[in-house]
Write a structure and sequence with these properties.
mainly alpha; single chain
């Protein structure tokens, strides 16, 4: 696979030359996410006045725990608020799939546009089912301890990309293909995520985090999209790595079968588009 620095350089170049600009589309996506978060907070907020708090504490201090819980039920958000909050979460997961589609189209030069953010609604049900299946599988593995859950997370990490790339596939098929695709690469993707740790921490800083995400969302998103493209295309070797195979073939009179079907996705000059580029 291309090294991390090559992926990041390619991602930066794609962001710089894209039309429409990846940062602009990411900003729209972030604003939608912020709006949804504000609506969610509003829906699930508990309107507790000082008098309400005093009454609750009085019940609790007197040992009337049943009354205290009943009082919380009275002032808690209604069931419709939880339903609407779940609906908003579903909508944003589908918009997130649309953002991945935009990144894929940008990486491939396949006419990306702002409308890609809404294209996920064409296969929205599959996105929801996929998210549920991933949550169940990762949750079950996590019950064995945290480490198996982390492995499961990376095992299924490419499923959403596979679905966005080909919405005709079923969610379970995407999970199976992701499992096969990530065989031997989970540690590699984990290391890629760790390389963004500084950006992740900066994005958590109050106020400053919002500005940081304007860069990190497109930057990390494009890098991971290019990683998926590299996994899918099998563009694995640098010129030096491929030369080692060529030298071996020459020395042993061997024949190399080199699949260059996806050479159009290779943008890093360190990677050979054809075996004939290596002397």
């Amino acid at each position: 696979m291309p090294d991390r620095s090559a992926l990041k350089r390619n991602a930066t170049e794609k962001i710089r030359t894209s039309n429409p600009r990846v940062i602009t589309v990411a900003l729209v996506y972030l604003l939608l996410s912020l709006l949804v978060n504000l609506l969610s907070s509003r829906l699930l907020s508990i309107n507790m006045t000082d008098a309400d708090a005093a009454r609750y504490l009085q019940y609790y201090a007197e040992g009337n725990y049943e009354y205290a819980l009943r009082y919380l039920d009275i002032i808690a958000p209604p069931a419709t608020s939880y339903f609407l909050d779940t609906l908003l979460t579903v909508v944003m997961s589908i918009v997130g799939a649309g953002f991945i589609l935009f990144l894929l189209n940008t990486a491939r030069g396949n006419a990306p546009c702002f409308g890609n953010l809404l294209d996920g609604f064409g296969f929205g049900l599959k996105v929801v089912i996929l998210n549920i299946l991933e949550a169940v599988f990762i949750g079950l593995w996590s019950m064995l301890l945290v480490f198996p859950g982390i492995i499961a997370y990376y095992r299924y990490s490419q499923a959403i990309y596979i679905l966005v790339d080909d919405p005709t596939k079923s969610p379970m098929q995407c999970i199976r293909e992701s499992k096969a695709m990530m065989a031997g690469h989970k540690g590699e993707l984990f290391a890629l995520d760790l390389s963004f740790l500084g950006w992740y921490l900066l994005s958590l800083v109050p106020m400053l985090g919002y500005a940081v995400r304007v860069w990190t969302v497109p930057y990390i998103g494009m890098t991971k999209t290019l990683y998926f493209e590299a996994l899918r295309s099998g563009a694995a070797y640098t010129r030096d790595q491929l030369k080692a195979w060529v030298d071996y073939a020459k020395k042993n009179n061997a024949v190399i079968l080199y699949d260059a079907a996806y050479e159009c996705f290779i943008t890093d000059p360190a990677l050979a588009r054809s075996i004939f580029e290596v002397e």
